[in-house]
Design brief:
The protein has about 350 residues and is α/β, with parallel strands linked by helices. It folds into 2 domains: about 130 residues, Rossmann fold; about 180 residues, Hypothetical protein af1432 (Orthogonal Bundle), CATH 1.10.3210. Helices cover about 55% and strands about 5% of the residues. A 5-stranded parallel β-sheet has the order 2-1-3-4-5, sandwiched between helices.
Length: about 350
Amino acid sequence: MDQKTILLVDDSPEILDVLKFILKPHYAIKVATRGALALKLAAGAGAGIDLILLDVMLPDMEGYEVCRLLKADERTRHIPVIFVTARSDPSDEAHGFAIGAEDYIVKPVSAPVVLARVATHLALNDRSRLLEQLVRQRTSMLEQRTRELEETRLQILRRLGRATEFRDNETGMHVLRMSQYVGLLARRIGLSTAEVETMDHAALMHDIGKIGIPDHILRKPDSLTTEEYDIVKTHCQIGADIIGFHESPLLSTCRTVALTHHERWDGQGYPNHLSGTDIPLAGRLTAIADIFDALTSWRPYKTAWNLDRAMQEIDAQCGHALDPVLGATFIGLRPDLERVIAAYPDSASLH
């Protein structure tokens, strides 16, 4: 085991000689006769100070101030400090403990007392630092597992969303573009990083309810009848029912998105005819991204619109189908939107 190093801080040669005589057979010794030097030695790179015996009366500053500065410095706050002083008043001891000292030895010192106190506090500090290391290791492992769980959950959401899109979209890339669009818009309006991630991940599940729509309606190349369109509209409630109610912010937002992404600002949407800001923000964000991607994507019943025409339509729908403020903000994202379209083309293969 490596030998522990004790820093003796005292301006009295006699006291230093006594302490060195007691401690040197068991520990490596460093000496400082001033407070400033003690601080420098303790904080020095590779100093390896394991414990400090500190006098209260020093030529340049009080030992109490030295202790306070040691405990305020991230580099030295872990080093146990034991005051060695002729002051024996209980108020002096109380003050020393209040600023972070671990113990108090009154001069003249007794060899057995010094050795016992030093050994005790070195052992306690070793255990404390070992515990801190174990906590850091466990915390790191927990954070890693949490990241893996989040990534797994995101992959599940992405695959479920894409599986849904395969039923009426050749490549299933729609949900990936949707997620990106929603994230860009959420970030632009100032949502926090966590809120942005929740919004763009939830967008992946906006059409999960299409699982419950019959293929002969969902994949019909011709115009839908009124009755068939009414059936398609039920995918919002079906999606909300599939996801259910959860305390998880992500799953709760997934449900909100599935239920409200076809509501309209003017109240003419479905399934609940919400209007204005009664439509949850997640639904309003997703509605814009959904309409934009539908306009700029090829479908069996339409060709893809160019960006100029799509942006004009988004602008025209502000205050009607879409939140006017969010719609105007979305239009300002055009360079970013172009990059998303290029990164997730409908011709891309599933990976």
